[in-house]
Each structure stands twice: as C-alpha cells, then as structure tokens.
Design brief:
heterodimer; A: mainly alpha; 12 helices; about 0% strand; B: about 280 residues; three-stranded antiparallel β-sheet; 8 helices; 9 strands; about 35% helix
Chain lengths: ~260, ~280
C-alpha cells in the first residue's frame, strides 16, 4: 500500500479527504448546470449561488437576516439549554426531584415539538417569543436527557472513592460527578445544536418577517431559486460551524478521554 | 501539616510488635493506630455476615485477612473503615500521642483513579480538603517519588499500565500519612511478576512509615509473604489467628513460609470438604 509507505503524504492528504466528496458534488453540479443537463430554473449552477450570495451580502440583506436568525437560535438555545441542564442535574442528583418530574417530562418528550406550532402561533402570534419558545423546547430535551443519563452513568466506585477520601458533597460533584457526566452532556449538546437550527428554520419558514428562513421563503415567491439554494448552503455551513465548535470544546474538556484525543 | 509532623517526632518504638533490626532511623517511629473490635456483628437483610468478632490489632502491625470469597473478610474491612455501620459491637482506634482522629485510607481492588485528573492531581485527592495548593503539589510529588512514578506526574491515568495505576492509587492512599491502611485485594488484577513488585513496594513503604496495615486477600502465599499476623476468617468468625515469625526481608520460597502457607490452605480446604459430600 503506497499510503503506508508515505506517512507524511498521508497526514497531509488526510486533511483534504473529508472535503473530497463535497468538492466532487459541486463540480458535478456545475458541470450538469453548464451543459444544460439540469435546468437552472430548478437547480441553479454553483456559480449562480455564489453570485446571489455576493449580491445579498453587498446589499446587507444577508447579514441582517443571518444576525436575526443567530440571535433567535442563541437565545432559544440558552433558555432551553439552561433549563434542561438544571433539571438534568437536579433529577440526576436528587431522587425526590426525579420522582416528581421525570415521568411528566418523559411524556412531554414524546410530543414532536413542531406540532406545537399552531398553538404557539395562537399564543404568541408570529413574534420573537414564538421562535424562542419553539427553539427552547426543542433544545431542552436532548440536553435534559443526556445530562441525566450522564450523571446516572458516573462510576459508583469513583463516587465511593471520593466519599472515603473525605470529599464534601460540593467537591464530589465538581471533581467526580460533573466530569464523569461531561461526555454524555456533550452528546446532548450536539443533538441540541442540530435541533436548534431545524426548529428555527421551520419556524421562520412558516411565520416570520425576517431571518434566513424568511429570506428563503421570499425568494421562493419570486422564483429566485439561487437565493433558495443559497439559504440551504448557509444552513449547511452553520451546521458545520456548530459541529466544529463542539469538537473544539470536546477536545478541550475531554482531553483525558482516549476516545477524544485524536481527530 | 502540624499534626503529622508532631506524630512523626514522637518516638514509640516499644509499640512495634515485630522486631526490625534494619531500621533505626527516625522514619521507623510508630505512626500506626491500634484497632480494637469488641463483639462486632454485621447482618444484611437478616443474614449474618460477621458474628460477634473480638480482635485487637496493635499499632503498626501488618495483618492479613484470608478466607474464601463470601466469608465476610471484605465486610470486616469496610466496617473498620466506617464504610458500613456495624449491627452490633464497637470499633475503637487508639493512636499513641496523636492529636487528631486517625486518618484511615483504603486501597481498592481497582485503582479507582479519576480519569479526568492528571496523575499528580489524583494523588493529591488523598490529602483531603484544606491543604494549600502549593503544599498539595509538593506532597503529591513526594508520594509519587516513593512509588517510583515521578516522571508520570503530568500524565493522564489512561496512559498508564495496570501496575502503574495501582501504584498511583498506593501513592494516593499514603500521601496523607495515614495511621491505618486498608488493602482490599489491591493486587488481584495484576500479573504475577507485577504483583511481587507491588508486594515488595508496599512492604518497603510500610516498614518506612510504620502505619497499621490490614490486607484482605484470597492469596495465601501473598499473606504469608507480607504479614506479621494472619487471620483466617470463616463464616464471619476468626477461625485461625497465626503469627508469622519469619524475619524480614523474607525470601520467596522460604521453607517456613511454605509450611505456614500449607497449614492455612489445609485448614481452608478441610473446612469445606464435608460440606460438599
């Protein structure tokens, strides 16, 4: 195998390997559009999408919408994530709290949160609260469930060790329980970030007067396919950014774990 | 810590039970704690695990507790450490001249290191709370040096071998200079050669620090190699209480040790033989 005999080449090549498939898709797409294989009425060429992005960026429309969407996503994530994390901790640490709330939460969890959209529109209209509420609900459950699971799966032998070595409950939490639950909490964080975008886009597509989803819907009305595709490409990039961010966090906080040391 | 230095300066060689001619320095002074059990009993769900046990362990003695699995030897250890509450009876600790309640430490069967803390921080866990930061580090480093792992201080536990992890656990148990060290089959998961190395290391540190040691093990050879005294526990009682009169350092394969090992094994096997038929 040549890859084995040239380890340095392999290291350099490894960086580009993940991008090979996206690059091939874009090239094929461009070729199909240029040769007229696919009608640009339905699928604009990548160059058209880039041009649309350039235009929307110059007019400032893109940045305003992006910023509005980001604020909605972040505030909803903060609210839902904080509540989910707090309840996950409470139910993981206190049997009483768990008995009191877990059954209720597990029932509510099985309701698809997007099915609440009609109700949410009735309650909040199409204002910011509606989006914040939907994102917060969507983010809440993965964070809650994974925090709870993380705390429950902390090695009881380590907890016993901490107790016999005289750790106070606070120290025990800080040094044993929380670090032990962290890998699972990060799994929740990843899921939550995905759900955050999904919820926001759906909410903005259905009812909004600004934001990325709104931009895409407006473009559809005027048959601006390139802007629609542009919005979709931006979603993909935002998803990738969120994922990279979690990876960096994981590598920082889970450096002790052999499973996270590479990549 | 002041209490530690105080107790270390107290000279009480008379408390030693076994003679140790090689050691005359100040490190040989006793810091061990004497343990006395009176009518100790423990039952789980009405099932008696320990029954009316009386025992006195002099300060600084190395006691091995052997027996078949389920005989109650681990429960006995957990009772002494306060991990379980006795159903009846009492446990008294007596530290000659020490000002504080004695520090009791345990080395578990598994290393039980925090995977997210560097080796040196894992050792510092043994100091408990209330020790200043700089002192924690120097003392942890010193304890690591004692088990020969100075160069691994900044490593994650996941990068160590099984034997090295157990040595870190030993350093963690000893960093606070305990009066009593409980060893709950700490070498059971190690390979034969690493086991012997660890036995020698524990014996060497015990002789230097002279804490009281209680080793629970199912390995009779290990108990005769290391202990001053061997207790054979059966059905929650002490069936045999033997003194090992072999001078240290002991040679592995020594005839006297082998004879003692044979005697204990005979006892353990004979006890169960009629029950099987």
């Amino acid at each position: 195998m040549s890859a084995v005999s040239f380890p340095r080449l392999r290291v350099h090549a490894a960086r580009f390997v993940p991008w090979l498939v996206p690059a091939a898709i874009i090239l094929g797409w461009q070729a199909a559009a240029s040769t007229g294989l696919v009608s640009t009425r339905f699928m604009p060429a990548p160059t058209d999408v880039v041009a649309a992005g350039w235009q929307a960026g110059r007019s400032g429309e893109l940045w305003t919408n992006l910023w509005v969407s980001f604020l909605r996503a972040a505030s909803g994530f903060l609210v839902g994530g904080t509540i989910g994390f707090a309840l996950g901790l409470a139910n993981g640490l206190s049997q009483l709290s768990e008995k009191l709330t877990d059954t209720t939460l597990q029932m509510v969890r099985n309701i698809p949160h997007l099915s609440l959209i009609p109700l949410v529109i009735l309650w909040f209209g199409i204002d910011e609260e509606a989006k914040l509420f939907l994102v917060a609900i969507g983010v809440f459950f993965p964070i809650y469930a994974n925090t709870l699971h993380g705390i429950r799966s902390v090695d009881p032998q380590l907890v016993e060790m901490g107790r016999t070595y005289g750790m106070s409950p606070l120290t025990l939490f800080r040094r044993v329980v929380l670090p032990g639950a962290l890998p699972s909490i990060f799994v929740g964080l990843r899921y939550a970030l995905g759900i955050m975008w999904l919820t926001l886009i759906v909410a903005e597509t259905i009812s909004a007067s600004s934001g990325l989803g709104y931009m895409a819907m407006q473009a559809r009305e005027f048959m601006l396919v390139d802007v629609v595709v542009l919005a979709i490409v931006i979603y993909a990039l935002l998803g990738k950014i969120a994922d990279t961010l979690t990876r960096v966090l994981e590598r920082t906080f889970l450096a002790w774990n052999p499973a996270y040391r590479t990549i | 810590m002041t209490a530690t230095t105080l107790s270390r300066t107290i000279d009480a060689p008379a408390v030693r039970t076994a003679p140790r001619p090689q050691e005359t320095g100040p490190a040989a002074s006793a810091t061990g704690v004497a343990v006395t059990l009176r009518g100790l009993a423990k039952s789980f769900d009405g099932h008696r695990v320990i029954e009316g046990l009386d025992l006195h362990i002099p300060a600084g003695q190395f006691v091995a507790v052997v027996g078949r699995s389920g005989c109650g030897k681990s429960t006995l250890l957990r009772l002494v450490l306060g991990l379980e509450q006795p159903s009846a009876g009492r446990i008294a600790f007596d530290t000659a001249g020490a000002l504080r309640a004695p520090t009791k430490r345990i080395m578990f069967q598994e290393p039980r290191l925090l995977p997210w803390a560097k080796v040196v921080d894992n050792v510092a866990v043994g100091l408990g709370e209330g020790v200043p930061r700089a002192e924690r580090r120097t003392r942890a480093q010193a304890a690591l040096a004692e088990v020969g792992l100075t160069e691994k201080a900044g490593n994650w536990p996941a990068t160590l071998s099984g034997g090295q992890r157990q040595r870190v656990a030993l350093a963690r148990a000893l960093v606070s200079r305990p009066g009593l060290l409980a060893l709950d089959e700490p070498l059971g998961a190690l390979d034969a050669l690493t086991r012997i190395d660890m036995q020698d290391m524990i014996e060497r540190i015990w002789r230097a620090q002279s804490f009281t040691a209680i080793l629970v093990t199912h390995d009779v050879a290990e108990s005769v190699a290391m202990a001053d005294r061997i207790l054979v526990v059966e059905d929650g009682r002490i069936a045999l209480d033997l003194t090992v009169d072999v001078p240290r350092p002991r040679r592995r394969g020594d005839a006297a040790l082998a004879a003692l090992e044979g005697r204990i094994l005979d006892h353990l096997l004979r006890e169960r033989a009629p029950a099987r038929t």
